[in-house]
Design goal:
Length: 384
């Protein structure tokens, strides 16, 4: 979450100092873990619970923000003064101070003010991922790969959790005010995701990006073996699939163009195979391409932040707010080395994962394992 052009008092501006005591003191605070069942309980007796959940978020979110700010402080000095990292740092401090400026949440008026703060933060926080992607490129020469990966992975995972808490709270209030009788949504959690529709829509986005960049794109061959409901956060699935599809489509199109001695149309390119296997507790999506595979030298690094075999910007600028297809048609295909490790962070958030098998000079199979959101139990504890 981030704010622009926020008017702060002189006392609040002091918080922009790298070593503000209020941030360090808040980062030391603890709070109870939050489970998925807690998120779902937000929706029961909304009139009564929205104030209680608002109080809970008022306690949790500043601590999570402060912890991330301290993580930035702990970076080597040359990394902390990176302009992209400073942008993120100052945004986080800005939001932190705005939240701390709210002294308490005791009434609906207090809650309304806090909700407005979260709404604005979610809207304006979309620039953080592109900034972090650029920062990771510039930090890479100064940090060991394992240190950089640990820092960014923790940063992103915590950001996913923080935004999910805010989005769930706000969505449940909106659903209470404007009920949709036949909706599958409980807040932002869809208890029966239409995986076919999500795959088709997301593939179309990636397809149009590739067509804009390469002039053509491979079509998709979709096979779904899904017999059980898939409870999940649809936006997370979109984030994951968009990056995997972009990589598969780009590799397939570029190889076809490189190997061809004549003009190609899209029917000449091997299709990207997408297969869905659904079980009682997890769903696996397999994306298979014939894009030539991943070289041996690169296989151990494909999930490293800041590593990429492509040029240009990648999905960090695309993933935050999936919108209409037209919004993606002019976006570049890849390049900052951020998309695949971030997609895996989204998959792992609820206990899933992403892995791959590759055959050089042939293609790659990517396995996306989505662990279903448990609508009844207390597992899937959200990361700090």
């Amino acid at each position: 979450m981030a704010f622009a052009n926020v008017n702060l008092s002189r006392r609040q501006r002091r918080a922009l100092s790298f070593y503000d005591d209020s941030i360090a003191n808040t980062a030391r605070l603890s709070y109870p873990p939050v489970s998925v069942s807690d998120l779902l309980n937000f929706s029961s007796n909304v009139e009564h619970n929205q104030l209680q959940t608002g109080i809970l978020l008022y306690k949790i979110l500043p601590v999570r923000l402060a912890t991330r700010i301290i993580d930035i402080h702990d970076l080597p000095y040359i990394c902390g003064i990176n302009p992209f990292m400073q942008f993120i740092h100052n945004d986080y401090v800005n939001v932190f101070m705005q939240m701390k400026a709210i002294k308490h949440i005791k009434t609906q008026a207090d809650l309304s003010k806090f909700n407005t703060l979260m709404i604005e933060g979610l809207k304006q926080g979309n620039s953080a991922l592109p900034q972090l992607a650029r920062a990771s490129k510039e930090l890479a020469p100064h940090l060991a790969p394992e240190v950089l990966n640990r820092f960014i992975n923790r940063f992103i995972t915590c950001r996913i959790g923080r935004r999910l808490l805010a989005e769930q709270h706000l969505a449940i209030i909106q659903q209470h005010l404007h009920p949709q009788p036949h909706s599958h949504l409980i807040g932002v959690i869809d208890h029966d995701v239409n995986i076919r529709a999500v795959i088709k829509a997301t593939y179309k986005r990636a397809f149009l990006i590739s067509r804009d960049v390469n002039g053509l794109s491979p079509h998709m061959d979709l096979n779904i073996e899904q017999t059980t409901a898939l409870p999940y956060v649809v936006r997370h699935i979109q984030y994951i699939l968009l990056e995997i599809f972009k990589n598969a489509i780009r590799a397939t199109a570029e190889r076809a163009i490189r190997d061809s001695t004549r003009f190609l149309d899209e029917d000449d390119i091997p299709q990207v195979q997408v297969t869905v296997h659904g079980g009682p507790s997890e769903t696996t999506i397999i994306v298979s391409d014939k894009g030539g595979g991943i070289s041996q030298d690169h296989q151990d690094r494909v999930f490293d932040f800041a590593f990429s075999t492509a040029q240009g910007l990648d999905a960090a600028s695309l993933l935050e707010q999936p919108q209409g297809v037209g919004d993606y048609a002019n976006r570049p295909m890849a390049g900052e080395g951020f998309g695949l490790p971030m997609a895996r962070a989204y998959a792992r958030f609820f206990g899933g994962d992403i892995s791959f098998q590759t055959m050089q000079d042939h293609g790659t199979d990517v396995y996306i394992k989505l662990r279903h959101v448990d609508l009844k139990g207390t597992q899937n504890i959200l990361p700090v």
